[in-house]
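Standup notes, structure subgroup. Blocker cleared on the ISJ input:
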Amino acid sequence: MLNNLADWKEIWAQAPAEGIALAMWRLPNQIQQVLLQDVRGGVRTDSDQLEHLGPGFLVGPFVGQPYFLQASSLLYKSMSTQTLNKPLQNSSKEDIAQKNLFKAQVAQSVVQIKQGQFQKVVLSRIDLQELAADFDLCDAFERLCQMYPTAFVAAIYLPELQNVWLCATPETLVSQDSEGIFRTISLAGTQSGLDAAGNLLSPSEARWSQKEIEEQAYVSRYIIECFKKIRLREYIENGPKTVLAGNLMHLKTEYSVDTLTQNYPGLITQMLGLLHPTSAVCGTPKEAALYWILQTEKHDRSLYSGYLGPINLASETHLFVNLRTVQISGNQACYFAGCGITEDSDPEKEWQETQMKCQTLQRVINASL
Ligand SMILES: C=C(O[C@@H]1C=C(C(=O)O)C=C[C@H]1O)C(=O)O
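Run returned:
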């Protein structure tokens, strides 16, 4: 039947030798997990028309053409009901050299903003850690599904990249359901969702500063500008409101469009092309922010802050921003996290924010020790 955890582990173990591309995911608020195998190994596509690609899984890098994984086979199983009984621990260490470098980059970005080069930029950094000898990808995926029920949890393997990515992201980039409802969100502004004792706070306890409200408004304005470019006026806007995303809280505004009554059949393809990379992961204006990111960051973002998700499956498409994500090569884990910088940014606070974002995955992955 190939639908229990042991079978899925076997498929993951065999994939590199067989040159098969894999994607395994669990949509937000669902219990069903899906494992897709592409015997062709996944191919680069121009994604001109998502609708024409057929059923599969799309993986777009921060910059460049996406990979399309065709659904050669699909396996389904339910999330394990076994509860996590190991304590979660925050294991991120502070590397002083990394911290100083990042804080200097944030300070330089603030200077650029004050000089009028751009208004907002999202800078990221990496945190390299060794995985425990008994780390198991499928177990970590299960734990993330249990810990973060509202996240999109996914793991992918692409033979061309020779590494695995695992994420638990709170951010929808674009989606369209079987009734033709298109959705996107504006997500930004970050604060801890835990109190000093590590208990979850309620969203009503969040207090947002002007800086964070402004930071999220850039993303909302950017989305509305994209709608304007295609002369779409009939959209529903809901928010901003505070949402919990794992150990963090963000400000979120939801946008939806009824593509059937509005007669917009290609909206999702058009919006994907216009939106990515949004002001939530790149900045405003996009070109100047992107130029600064590529000049400043010392690492290659690769698939971090790109997008991924199932397309054309059961007449639905759900693409998410690849955040709260880790790239795994052998026993090396490379965690990625970024933060939105505006003219009011404080380098120390921005560093702390990236630490909290890395911990979203680290506290769960390291709990399997
Ligand atoms: C860039 C990241 O997150 C994005 C940036 C946020 C912010 O700047 O506050 C919040 C949510 C995401 O849209 C990340 O998690 O790496």
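Discussed briefly. The chain has a mean pLDDT of 94.
Next: hand off to the docking folks.
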